[in-house]
């Protein structure tokens, strides 16, 4: 299978992993076991490379999922973690040491921001946060100790973009690695490794799983890097749960249908909301008003294949925000994203609650910002749902 479209190949990934024949059951079964039996000492020695032993180290459900992620990201190998945050922290704490420096995009998911500003500095890893909208800011922040540059493709929740090929060049000219979070965009929209990134992380809890029923993260990279992470992961205890891996692999079968619809719905909703008088700004790279629209058109295939996420700027008025959310019928508030149901969230009280106000405002996050995760509903129903709630909130 190498000559079909991505949508078709995605359905048939992972049917064979070492030593396990997944062709007999029509779908991959869940291996509800913490360990596998062995008979001889020779077999015990063989297990490390060729078979499965203990679930914190290896598990067939994680392995089929990892193979599928590697296919999608076009990377050599992937590892499955307990969550997106587990993937991020385990990777940074494995690859960086005291005295190393990291340059991070100042527009970033709130909890990644906390790892950068609260956890890494405790291990004498210096983190410099700069605005990646201008690549010169990154260039200027590089020092001889810079080991890693970190960004999301489209930052949570304002969608500020990273120029992945330019960042890869800056990283490599200076002997550093580029690590990219693809959670908002997914490998269906963009494959950062093919644009020069060295490591890609996905919170698969979000769009990739899409059903809001399992938590997990992935890291994809070349063998030399993955080998180090693979050794450290069981020590951190951040290996993904087998049941979550099974659930995700099952849900991956519809990823192409779901995520493409979500991305196209988001572009349509963004264009419609931009016309509403209560909305002072819509953050979505498909819009011509988006400051990095030109970069988006360079990195993505089309306006409708960027991200199922957008955010809108409403007045900084709590009563008005409450009127808006209470007039929504099928869209609900939820502290997650990427599911097939459209949800919304208020970053100032949720994902970025622990980020200081001045830093939040510098990221473009005001108390009036609402983040919307677009589902697979009919696009006209979605536009109507938001428009009537905004009308009622005025
Ligand atoms: C961009 C981004 N990266 C990483 C994470 C962390 O993922 P998880 O909740 O699976 O740990 C999130 C969670 O919302 C996210 O939005």
Automatic annotation (TrEMBL):
Keyword Cell division (UniProt): no
GO cellular component: cytoplasm
Any one GO MF annotation of this record: transaminase activity
Superkingdom of origin organism: Bacteria
EC number: 4.4.1.2
Assigned keywords, A-Z: Aminotransferase, Pyridoxal phosphate, Transferase
Positions bearing N6-(pyridoxal phosphate)lysine: 206
GO biological process: transsulfuration
Enzymatic reactions: L-methionine + H2O = methanethiol + 2-oxobutanoate + NH4(+); L-homocysteine + H2O = 2-oxobutanoate + hydrogen sulfide + NH4(+) + H(+)
Entry cofactors: pyridoxal 5'-phosphate
Presence of keyword Glycoprotein: no
Pfam families named in the record: Cys_Met_Meta_PP (PF01053)
PANTHER family documented for this protein: CYSTATHIONINE GAMMA-LYASE (PTHR11808:SF80), TRANS-SULFURATION ENZYME FAMILY MEMBER (PTHR11808)
Entry similarity comment: Belongs to the trans-sulfuration enzymes family.
Protein name: homocysteine desulfhydrase
The organism of origin for this protein: Candidatus Anaerotruncus excrementipullorum
């Amino acid at each position: 299978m190498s000559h079909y479209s991505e949508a078709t190949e995605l359905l048939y990934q992972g049917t064979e992993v070492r030593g396990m024949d997944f062709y007999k059951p029509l779908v991959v079964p869940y291996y509800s076991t913490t360990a596998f039996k062995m008979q001889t000492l020779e077999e015990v020695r063989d297990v490390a490379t060729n078979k499965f032993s203990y679930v914190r180290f290896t598990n067939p459900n994680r392995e089929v999922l990892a193979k599928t992620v590697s296919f999608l990201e076009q990377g050599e190998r992937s590892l499955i973690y307990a969550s997106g945050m587990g993937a991020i922290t385990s990777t940074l704490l494995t690859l960086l040491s005291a005295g190393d420096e990291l340059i991070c995009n100042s527009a970033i998911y709130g909890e990644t921001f906390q790892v950068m500003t609260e956890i890494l500095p405790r291990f004498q890893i210096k983190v410099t946060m700069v605005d990646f909208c201008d690549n010169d800011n990154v260039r200027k922040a590089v020092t001889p100790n810079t080991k890693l540059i970190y960004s999301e493709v489209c930052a949570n929740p304002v969608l500020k973009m990273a120029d992945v090929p330019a960042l890869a060049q800056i990283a490599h000219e200076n002997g550093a690695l580029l690590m990219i979070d693809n959670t908002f965009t997914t490998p269906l929209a963009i494959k950062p490794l093919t644009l020069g990134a060295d490591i890609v992380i996905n919170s698969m809890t979000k769009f990739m799983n899409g059903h809001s029923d399992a938590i997990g993260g992935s890291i994809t990279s070349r063998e030399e890097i993955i080998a180090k992470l693979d050794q450290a992961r069981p020590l951190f205890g951040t290996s993904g749960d087998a049941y979550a891996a099974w659930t995700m692999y099952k849900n991956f079968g519809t990823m192409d249908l779901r995520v493409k619809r979500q991305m196209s719905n988001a572009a349509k909703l963004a264009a419609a909301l931009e016309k509403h008088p209560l909305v002072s700004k819509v953050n979505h790279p498909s819009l011509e008003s988006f400051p990095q629209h030109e970069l988006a058109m360079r990195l993505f295939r089309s306006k409708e294949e960027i991200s199922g996420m957008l955010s809108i700027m409403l007045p900084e008025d709590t009563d008005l925000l409450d009127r808006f959310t209470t007039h929504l019928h099928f869209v609900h508030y939820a502290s997650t994203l990427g599911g097939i149901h459209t949800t919304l969230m208020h970053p100032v009280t949720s994902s970025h609650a622990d980020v200081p106000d001045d830093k939040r405002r510098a990221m473009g996050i005001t108390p009036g910002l609402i983040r919307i995760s677009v589902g697979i509903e009919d696009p006209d129903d979605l536009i109507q749902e938001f428009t009537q709630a905004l009308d009622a909130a005025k």
